[in-house]
Amino acid sequence: MAVTTRLTWNEEKRLQKLLGNVSLRLLYKSSVHQSDIFYMLERCIHQGPTVTIIYFSEVLWVVFMLEHYPEKTDKLTRPNPSLQFSFRKDRESEITGILETEMKIVSKQLEFYFFGKKKFSVDLGKAILSTYTSKDNDSGQNSCHNAKFLECEVFRVEGIKDDTNYISKITRAMKYRNPLVAELRAYKPCVHIISEIRILLLGPTGSGKSSFINSVKSIFRGQRTRHAPVGADITSITEQYRIYPIKYGKYGICLQFSLCDSMGIHEKEGVGLCMEDIPYILKGCVPDRYQLNPNRPITPNHPTFISSPSLKDRIHCVAYVLDINSIQDLSSKMVAKLKQIQKEVLKCGTACVLLLTNMDNCSTLPQDNFLNMAKAMTSQSQIMDVSKMLSVPIYNTFMVENYTSEWELDPLKDTQILFVLRQMLRIVDDFLEDMPLEEIEMKTVRERNEGEKKCT
What is the per-residue pLDDT across 255-266, written as a single tens digit (0 to 9) for each? Predict the structure, then answer.
């Protein structure tokens, strides 16, 4: 008779994503096999990376080990890196108690240590998980809390990347991803009359504009989605000006920022986004789903032209999107067009950032902390050259690896994309705070008058 896991389908998928889109194969189940540490070891040692799950009625307590299960020994002769975390069954997206631990087997128990101090122990025979916390006194003794669990399962993890720092990278991603999601969900523009921040992505065809939009939407949706059409041909696949709202969850409410997409920029005239359309897009005169024409720009006489856009209709940030592998190949005509666009952006008083895409692997970034990504990225000469070329400050320059052909989300990639998005919104807030109060007041009055006219 086949042994089946206690994990639900959603719980198993969640674990697979958290550990880098891996596969799980059940090795041991305490209610079916013997509830004995030695019998468990017979089934689990020399199996490579494993996940041990302790089940409670409302919580799953999880330990991921990158190396083989340890042999029975009273001495930890070699560190066995592991990652401990837990999540509630009704809130699987909230990961708590993330610790990089080391494990050994002592007196028929699994013991987990954090910086040399015992934090947890598992007694399979008694089905008890013990948690140890330090007391605030001079005795040096730890307090112990025992909790009866329902089941213990061990899985072999297949598909782990060959990386000695894998545990640390996954830990950092899990620690920072959820707080970043929470911060972006709660984001509100610093100016109260603006209900939604609009970020326009501009760049050559195939640079990754639409892919970045799809990546952001996928993270907040919780699964891969491809709303924005993506292409890599010399001609742009995007033919409409689109304003993409970002929703949290499949049926969630819209967050207070949107990403705007348009035709790719081309070095030749009559191909790609018409340069005369850009000022109108920046000012908020172009409606969502407007059909772009490289040879025929929108005019104030167009029936859908927004003649009196409010402050909330305009573009609040322009993100120039360039393929990091093609920076040196930009033609003089393309550079001239980008500089012309930047002059218009600066003339409109719009914030701007530089987004470099198509990194080989986001997990190879040369920094120890996801929150210090920008500092580490600014050391390469080619990045500084393109930043200077477009007159975009080096601290407003970011690198990102979009989702392209993947079917599942990756916590490492999620964290990097979320960090870049958060920085964009912070830059927008800085820009809005520097706007003259007189201009904001005039915009507010005009918006109010327009609203009264519509009512009448």
Answer: 999 999 999 998
